[in-house]
Design a protein that fits this description.
single chain; mainly alpha; globular
Length: 394
């Protein structure tokens, strides 16, 4: 609804507020009047009326009244470009080059992904107040710069693609193991991210990073049935029941990875970050058990990924793989180099706790587990970390 209203009215605030008001109206009226035969249509019509009312309230000028009468026309809009899905169109619209990259991603996560400011702040590893200001400034810049709400041209699509892919992946990650929610997994977000990935794949079938992102999400989502135990505790990759993995999704994801390997071998562009991450996940899913995992290949792939994206989180994941090849002592040394950058990241402390446990340093491991539990927002992760801590020798 936000995407459709943004296209129609050309104003993000109007789109958000009208959508919210429509849902409030539904909550107030449906319990008494009953759910309408077409709930989606009722909400859409109500939202349009709310938007028109807001435009009229904001200004008494004749031009505003005329604008409101024009947008009240329910005639379907004619196709105006290559993107026919409102949500995908909104992705590209928000990822305008006039905005800073982080602002593009944050704004789109808020408008299209429906993520809260705390969720987005956690994804960026920044404070909530910082993220709130970033989103507010992005909206203000769109309005002040008169950035048009239009279907992007083919050239615009290529220019904005990196930001769009980042948005889709962050939406997927927030759904796959949500930060703060009673449900450890938000299937609505993971399904929407994969749906958008498939739309992007149809739009740009020869783009390696589009294929790589879709493969990465498919291979990751394939493990979802084994990700959380019946008691609501996180199950790590090494402990998962691989028989519960979705083999259909794995086959589709692996086919995309093989396609990209063949394209690179035939002289295509070198793999980008999503293709490399998809390849890492393919190595995991191909192993019949955790002990059969080809960790040397994973270390090599993370090494290539670090050249493209030398972020602390990529280096942390590489350190985990190094620990499997060269031992927990070597891995811990790599992890400790990231202490300053990742002190506020729960997975950093969870990784340290596990490596310290394997080295027999129980007291230090317990301290690291406590820190990880304090920082973890997801209940499934907290339950897993608490159990591992409590298993330490006294």
């Amino acid at each position: 609804m936000v995407a459709g209203l943004a296209r129609r009215f050309g104003d993000l605030d109007v789109a958000e507020e009208a959508t919210a008001e429509a849902f409030v109206a539904a909550v107030q009226r449906w319990p008494c009047e009953g759910v309408p035969p077409n709930p989606g249509g009722w909400l859409a019509t109500t939202a349009v009326r709310k938007a028109i009312d807001r435009l009229r309230r904001e200004s008494q000028r004749d031009a505003k009244h005329q604008e409101a009468r024009i947008v009240a026309d329910d005639t379907p809009a004619e196709p105006t470009g290559p993107i026919e899905d409102d949500r995908l169109r909104l992705l590209f619209t928000c990822c305008h080059p006039a905005l800073a990259t982080e602002a593009r991603v944050a704004l789109t996560l808020r408008l299209l992904g429906g993520l809260t400011v705390p969720e987005i702040a956690r994804a960026f590893l920044v404070q909530e107040t910082t993220m709130a200001r970033r989103i507010t400034r992005a909206k203000a810049k769109i309005k002040a710069a008169h950035i048009p709400y239009r279907v992007p041209s083919a050239g615009d699509i290529q220019e904005r693609l990196a930001g769009v892919l980042a948005v889709v992946y962050l939406v997927f990650n927030e759904g796959y193991l949500t930060g703060e929610d009673d449900n450890p997994v938000r299937v609505d977000l993971t399904d929407e991210a994969i749906r958008l990935g498939r739309l992007l794949r149809g739009l740009l079938p020869d783009n390696g990073e589009v294929a790589g992102l879709l493969a990465l999400m498919l291979l990751t989502d394939a493990r979802r049935p084994a990700r959380v135990s019946r008691t609501g505790e996180l199950v790590t990759l090494a402990e998962q029941d691989r028989g519960a993995w979705d083999r259909t999704l794995i086959a589709e994801g692996n086919a995309l990875v093989r396609e990209r390997i063949a394209a690179v071998a035939a002289g295509g562009d070198p793999p980008g970050r999503y293709q490399l991450q998809a390849a890492i996940n393919a190595v995991h899913t191909e192993a019949p058990s955790a002990r059969d995992t080809n960790w040397s290949t994973i270390v090599a792939l993370y090494g290539r990924l670090a050249l493209l994206d030398p972020s602390p989180i990529v280096r942390l994941n590489r350190a985990v793989a190094i620990a499997e090849v060269d031992g927990p002592g070597v891995g811990l040394a790599e992890v400790d180099r990231l202490a300053e950058a990742l002190d506020g990241y729960h997975a950093f402390h969870a990784t340290r706790a596990d490596l310290l446990r394997r080295l027999g340093r129980g007291g230090e491991s317990r301290t690291a587990y406590d820190r990880a539990i304090d920082l973890a927002g997801n209940p499934a992760e907290r339950a897993y970390l608490a159990r591992r801590r409590d298993q330490l020798a006294s």
